[in-house]
Amino acid sequence: MRKLKFEYSMELKFSSPVSRHYFALRCVPGDSLRQKITLTECRVSPADYTSADKDGFGNLKISGGCRRLHDMFSYYVAGTAVVQGMIVQKCPLHPMYRYPSKYTEPGPEITSFAEKVSQKCKRQGAETAMDRAVCAMHDLYIRFQYIPGVTDIGTTAEQALMQGKGVCQDYAHIMIAVMRRMGIPARYVNGLMIGEGATHAWVEIYTDGGWYGLDPTNDLYIDDYYIKLAHGRDYADCVVDKGIFLGNASQEQKIYVNVEEISDGRDSSVNGTAGGREADDPEKPDHAGTSYRG
């Protein structure tokens, strides 16, 4: 168990003023069996109003809007998290996590990879859901290359596996697709990792009556260096920052994330991440202009 201090800020600049800007943010971590959150600051600007509630997946969501003209939008969240990693989060299973979703529909590449992993599991005597998931995670880590900039937020698991390279969002989608193909319920998670960088994405599988986290990007179990923000069937269900506005403007986004371990009453900065690769940011601007969408 560790106590972590975290900061998460996002700044979105518009090339020209926009108005009637409505947003939904999943940038605030919530309490769970593995993490207890104490917020010290949470601000959104500009905003005529905001409200906090839980979405259909149980994630904390801040909704709001700004009707007046503005050329910048930002939020800042800070606090502490007492995190206990590598534990099963007991809860009933919703059947939606068994079936393909928007980003995880299996094609020939996913099907072939899942079959190869299943055969390898049999040869190695991996019978439990966790053993099979770890086997798949390790194979994906070896096969797939971490290369930023070659995929985007619309890339599916099948497309990413076909080209063999991508970022944490792609690793998560591929593993979820493979898990469901192998009969193991799985869901997408985004959150923060120890160190300084941006948001990260990983996977939770359902086993032993609850959810257990795995990070395929780094070939690691989720431990107490990870802070969870939200989960869903795939990326589309738990976008950290989503909005619509009226206006014809391009967008420039800057994100800053810092997570430090608090030890002996002092803040001890830890450089880097808990894994073999840097955390990346799957949260490119998702604020659409001119027309409205759901």
TrEMBL record:
Matching SUPFAM superfamilies: Cysteine proteinases
Gene3D superfamilies: 3.10.620.30
Transglutaminase-like domain: residues covered: 160-218
Pfam families: Bact_transglu_N, Transglut_core
Region feature (Disordered): 265-294
Compositional bias ranges of the Basic and acidic residues kind: 277-287
Superkingdom as given in the UniProt entry: Bacteria
Record-linked InterPro entries: Bac_transglu_N, Papain-like_cys_pep_sf, Transglutaminase-like
Signal peptide: none
Database matches in PANTHER family: BLR5614 PROTEIN-RELATED, SLL1049 PROTEIN
Protein's name according to its UniProt entry: Transglutaminase family protein
